[in-house]
Amino acid sequence: MGNNILKYLFIVIVIGLIGFGVYKMAKSDGEKDNENLDQTSTVNTIQTDLRLAICGFDTINPILSNNRNVQEISKIIYEPLVTLNEAYKLEYCLAEEIAKTDDLNYVIKTKKGILWQDGTEFTAHDVWFTIDRIKRAAENGVSTVYANNLAAVIQTDAIDDTTLKITLSEPVDFFEYHLTFPILSEKYYGDDNFYASEKNNMPIGTGMFKIANVDSNIINLEKNDLYWNVSKQPMASEIHINMYGSAGEVYNAFKNGEIDIVDVKINDVEKYIGSIGYKKIEYKARDYDFLTINTQNEVLASPSVRRAIGKAIDKNNIVASCLGAGYVASNFSLDMGNWLYTKDVSVPVNLEEANQILAQDGWEYKNNKWRKKVDQRTLELAFSIAVNGNNSTRVAVAENIKNQLANIGIPVLIKQLNNEAYAASLENKNFDMILTGMTCSYSPSLRLFFGENNLANYANGEVSEIMNVILNTSDENQLYEKYNRLYDIYLEEVPYIGLYRNTDVVIFNQSLVGNIKANAFNLYYNIEKWYRQ
Fold first, then answer.
1. What is the pLDDT of residue 266?
2. How much is the pTM?
3. At the topology level of CATH, where does 49-260+511-532 sit?
4. What superfamily would CATH give domain 284-503?
5. Of 26, 27, 262, 383, whose CB has the highest number of CB atoms within 10 Å?
């Protein structure tokens, strides 16, 4: 009897375990189906139309448009050969493979089986067509934001339907990163004058959405049923792009709930739309200012002196005192989120340590000055900072740095130069230090800082070897290793002192649900998972 009871009990347990397993499998499948939904949503309650905005619309043709909103939105209609992920890492899109055959030549294989939104087949000839129209834009009196991407391209040949060869006039670091421009259809335009064609009102793409119709106030997109990327099928079936004449109109529309998400250049958005009813994401943008140190200057040639100066400058103080909202302390050109920014190179302000570094390097602080004897001569630790006198913000920053360095007994002379003199000083490296800046490239190239004839007159044998490896390898592990070592040397020798960069903000309504991310390259990562509730 006892054995029978145990047998029945065993059978019940087994059946229970099987049932639980089936339940878990079904639950898991259900979770996969609804993984985009938040905990309060159901498939029946979500709204599958999204609402975006364009301010100051010019044309929806992404090659011809100089409107930032159009460039942002174009990424969900048109596609490039390569794209960049949230960490600015290269990913193939319409390209299947890119081979660098030598410093000047690249062979591109395009993906097969991709259809344009009118059902025609995408080929390498479309890439040739797009490059040709970008290259010829200037001679047709048209400005295109992609001209610089292809400035070094002197020849493009479509070998066959899936093969393209590009020849450059000179080597370009990480040239693949320049292939992020949207591709347009050659067959669609046919013999039309591309730059004046009426087809620019509704050009077709290969992206997840296509233009359904356009009128004076709105552009309607609909899901592209021919979209090739099965892993990125969007939840939204429609996107309505409202057009406005001013930023004020956009802010009002957002406040009124007519727009789901907006990218803004100002970080004090609360002044315009309040602080309730929306969320925001601040991200580091591309404008980066820094001090370049002439490493051949007699006083500043010492890495110890440069390290001490770096320790004495409080970047957060500069941002708070001279810049305010819309800026953040920044230490390096790649620290806007690049995957090859392999370690934090921030330098916390520490005046005591700065003094110790100078003392250990043989400097003596006496009569309110740092002095050092070199070859029977006495050097004084003093230098000038050149700055463009027409840039009031940078002048204020230079004065701030001057005041900060005075706190450790280093006198600084600010040289305010006119535009012409400033440009000549930078080009000829005729400065002790110079306050300058750049719009950072999407590529991880560091030639400006560490290549031959770099800004700082900086020479280091190991750095030269590292740069040679970086420019001649595509191995990610090797790149990571070399960049990591480069940062160690940067911190030790300090040929530049990073100061700050600008930031941008994406604001979105609380009713918009999804894994919303943004960087300077793309505002619409994961848009295929977005919906409204």
1. 75
2. 0.89
3. D-Maltodextrin-Binding Protein; domain 2 (3.40.190)
4. Dipeptide-binding Protein; Domain 3 (3.10.105.10)
5. 262
